[in-house]
Amino acid sequence: MNKVKVLIVDDSALVRQALKEVISSDPQLEVIATAADPFSAVEKMKQQKPDVITLDVEMPRMDGVTFLHKIMEQHPVPVVICSSLVGEGTQTHIKALEAGAVDIIVKPTLGTRKFLEESKVRICDAVKGAARARLKKLTKQGAVPAKKLNADSVIAPKSSSSMVETTEKVIVIGASTGGTEAIRVVLQTMPLGCPGIVIVQHMPEGFTRSFAKRLNGLCSIEVKEAQNGDAVLRGQALIAPGNKHTLLKRSGARYYVEVKDGPLVSRHRPSVDVLFRSTAKYAGRNAIATILTGMGDDGANGMVEMKEAGAWTCAQDEETCVVYGMPKEAYERGGTDLLLPLNNIGARLLRAV
């Protein structure tokens, strides 16, 4: 298998060296060059085109987001943003995702080298995932991930006595790589009277609040970051906070969310599998679910459980996904019989309601 060729762009020599050591430690990855700024990166790219670029945001001569725009407009290459989260940086990073960044790794302002070394698996997974992103075509997949915990570690499976009848509907959505824009497309189709919506988008801690705030300004419905105990209300979407699991619960005929700590499930926190299992358990046939673009298989098993509980399910089709991983796994495992283009999903969710 050919190695994934990586270009590191960061103005810190310390970070460049640390990232190089971390990425080079993976036998499937190869650092072909490092650059201190975008202008130097362009020269390196003329010599050898990378499969993936890791890119800082705050750099001299040209900031990373501007450079990202130029890359995507001229010669698209999968980009992983690797930058510190400070001040208004969260909003900047959201803009980077909108511009086409495949993933984001948040590095601290202090202790960066130690953080990068301790985050080796996360970084290498992000780079290999980016190499598979559908910009022009998918590259070869990386190694099979290490053994993962499933939703049993956070919530027990549904039992026959879990459900009490109710007519209240709820929509649940799971997404990862490419999901920020896919979720926007779906939510902008939702009218004020739509059922309550709960969403898990794989995002680092600190990003989800800005993501929800941005969507709230773009959509007719209210969008907010979920807090423990929030009611699931009509005309509102709750975004699971980064680094916390979000579960759907019921009190009488009304739904609410539980936001809690817990181990990584399917290598993620928040996990789509956790949300979907809790939805199967507490909403059953009153649930409407979709799984959107994303790397890996988080949510696939949970969608199978929802379908078995009588929920209506669908997944985003390969043609419109940035990465056709999570929807593919859900479809192949029998979690849904329906693959839909992104632009059709919102309307079909409402028809299912």
Automatic annotation (TrEMBL):
One of its GO terms (molecular function) is protein-glutamate methylesterase activity. Phosphorylated by CheA. Phosphorylation of the N-terminal regulatory domain activates the methylesterase activity. Transmembrane segments: none annotated. The modification 4-aspartylphosphate is found at D56. It catalyses: L-glutaminyl-[protein] + H2O = L-glutamyl-[protein] + NH4(+); [protein]-L-glutamate 5-O-methyl ester + H2O = L-glutamyl-[protein] + methanol + H(+). The keyword Phosphoprotein applies. Its main location: cytoplasm. Its EC number is 3.1.1.61, 3.5.1.44. InterPro entries: CheB-like, CheB_C, CheY-like_superfamily, Sig_transdc_resp-reg_Me-estase, Sig_transdc_resp-reg_receiver. It is found in: Cytoplasm. Residues 164-353 form the CheB-type methylesterase domain. Pfam families: CheB_methylest, Response_reg. Residues 5-122 form the Response regulatory domain. Contains a C-terminal catalytic domain, and an N-terminal region which modulates catalytic activity. Belongs to the CheB family. Involved in chemotaxis. Part of a chemotaxis signal transduction system that modulates chemotaxis in response to various stimuli. Catalyzes the demethylation of specific methylglutamate residues introduced into the chemoreceptors (methyl-accepting chemotaxis proteins or MCP) by CheR. Also mediates the irreversible deamidation of specific glutamine residues to glutamic acid. This is Protein-glutamate methylesterase/protein-glutamine glutaminase. It comes from Alteromonas oceani.
